[in-house]
Amino acid sequence: MVKKLLKLSYMLFVTAVLYMPLLVVLVISFNEKSLDVSNLGLKEFHFTPKWYISLFENKDLIYSAFRSVCLAVSSATISTIVGTVIAIALHRYRFIGQKLVYGSLSVIMMTPEIIIGISLAMTFIIIGIKMGFWSLLLAHTVLCFPYVTITVLSRLRSFNRSLAEAAADLGASDIGIAKNILLPLIIPAMFAGWLMSFTLSLDDVIVSFFVSSDKYEILPMKIYSMVQTGIQPDVNALCSVMFFITFMVVVSAYRMVRSKPN
Fold it and tell me: CA–CA separation, 92 vs 157, rounded Å?
């Protein structure tokens, strides 16, 4: 009984530490006055949804959000295709440098984003790619596809290889095996990887800072520029909306990853 209470207390403490700042932002987003030095204790709280109304009436934010969604959908789709092909190749074939390829995926995932952003920006400048949508698309694809590969590869490792071998013995081609056996198995993992990539692209600030331009401003960079002059109530409302969307996407991805193959 005591151990259960300690475990429960520990879980509640960790949850409070992680989510308390987000809860504060959510509460402040419904307050008539913004949180400043003179109102640190929220002594005068007056509920109002006007910041959400003004948020959705802001055309600049809507355009930035639309650009971010288009970018996130595009990069997530490309990352899913590239990551799935690499995962199938790593699982199905044996080739020289296979361990190097797998290790490079971990390197990309573990490398700080500021290093990735600087290196990509220098590469784009050297090869002549203008900063904008295409540079952001390539950068976000590089950032996201390793997560898709690891997710799909973990799904493939639970697959019984004898099924593919039996299909090959019966005359099935590699394309037929991938289409009729592997693809139905990894669709949940592909969808989960797509959702993860979508979330990473939608929320990314550091990499986007180095490869974006003023002509194509996405939502995270718009928020970053808005908070330079102080945290305004409409920014709190926008952060609350983004957190809710991201939370739903992550929950969906987690449920897809946990689904067992038939």
Answer: 10
Rounded-to-integer distance, Cα 70 and Cα 92, Å = 33
Cα(82)–Cα(188) distance, integer angstroms: 16
* Closest C-alpha to 139, from 188, 205, 191: 205
Write a three-state SS string for the chain.
CHHHHHHHHHHHHHHHHHHHHHHHHHHHCCECCCCCHHHCCCCCCCECCHHHHHHHCCHHHHHHHHHHHHHHHHHHHHHHHHHHHHHHHHHHCCCCCHHHHHHHHHHHHHCCHHHHHHHHHHHHHHHCCCCCHHHHHHHHHHHHHHHHHHHHHHHHCCCCHHHHHHHHHCCCCHHHHHHHHHHHHHHHHHHHHHHHHHHHHHHCCHHHHHHCECCECCHHHHHHHHHHHCCCHHHHHHHHHHHHHHHHHHHHHHHHHHCCCC
Distance CA 131, CA 111 (A): 22
125: Cα separation from own chain's centroid: 26
Q: What is the largest CA-CA distance in the chain?
A: 77
Q: Which residue has the higher pLDDT, 236 or 140?
A: 140
Distance CA 33, CA 45 (A): 8
The model's pLDDT over 107-163, given as tens digits with 9 standing for 90+, comes to 888 888 999 999 999 999 999 888 989 999 999 999 999 999 998 988 888 777 677
